[in-house]
Amino acid sequence: MKASIETLETQLNDFNVAARTTALRELLALAAQGAVDIAPPTNVANMHCHTFFSYNAYGYSPTALAWLAKKSGYAYMGIVDFDVLDGVEEFLAACDLAGVRGSAGMETRVFIPEFATREINSPGEPGIFYHMGIGFTTSTSPVEIKLLLDNLRARAEGRNRDVAARVNAYLDPVVIDYDRDVLPLTPAGNATERHMVVAYLEAAKRTVSDPAAFWAEKLHTSRTEIDAILHNGPKIQNLVRSKLMKRGGVGYVRPSPEMFPSVEEVNRVITACGALPCATWLDGTSAGEQAEAELLDLLIGKGVVALNIIPDRNWNIADPETKRVKLQKLYEIVELAQRLDLPLNVGTEMNAPGNRLVDDFAAPELAPVRAALMDGAAFIYGHTVMQRALGLGYGSEWAREHLATRKARNEFYTRIGQHITAGETALNALRRFTTAVTPATILRAVGQT
Q: Same domain, yes or no, for 218 and 131?
């Protein structure tokens, strides 16, 4: 039985979606029989998990992430992929099957001209900003919106191919063919720098007789250090990427404003899909993030209604002084978000080796903000389930009519997310209402007064 479970869990990451769904159904059947250990429900959430449709360091598909949440007892789970919505329907359907409160999002980079001289959350790149949409319920979008999504994917691929050409020239004879060596590592052709790193490490193994000596020379690193990490996938991948593809590396291309869309362009895509524009925050130390109140005020004016935070990078730090500074920044940004009525989307990303599967919500450092983090997860699920069932999500005309302020909307969708379970039964219970329903009626129906 143990081998069968392991085989099924591996199949959850097959590039064939039918195989993934079959594996999930079989695992859930085994769980119902008591053959799989399912953790009791725990009040934790990871609302920012990349899938293998962009890059997941553990190879997880959307279906595998739904199973991870089910098996581990997570209260809420959310996916976020770079530049694509490829996993939205799969993830939400898998969450329905598994009984997991789920949400789906997209991340991209934009240029903010008002901050053109200040670094924000893309290190060393003034004006460039990681931006998100959360609470998507479908990957289907109007034709004009699809064109912009296609453009985002094409821009990302163009940047990647440019990086590969530069790195190939430097690493020759260890070279990769983007179509042959990189694209097959992804299920839908949306490759990232991290996929390219994997391809280069494999190319070195098959091309040179002494890969350790090769990497020591090319990365200007001692042979001793390379020997120590060459067979440690996360560490060698991070070193290769930082030395070759990030700022200062031979493959690095300094971004220009023309390389990225505007916040307004991306927000049009997000809202046209019924989703929510979401700002993102790194750690509070850059020039732009030291002016976070100014930045968020600007972005709220452009349509932002939520804020993404990765808590682990602000408290799980070895150096005491760095930890003190960054933890205080975390508390400050949560307080600011609450003042501005911006719910929080929090998670661990899972797009780099070593990222946690879920934040340590029991950590004493997170105690002062834990309630705000969990309320944010409930809010996003509440929007998602209302949008899926009735088209009455946060951005709907119904919400604007009945819940005139951001604060009122936040409270309503948070309460919905806290009290509506996951799955088709819950969706069907909501579908009995019409758009004439009031928020109070819905809250009473889910046991709230």
A: no
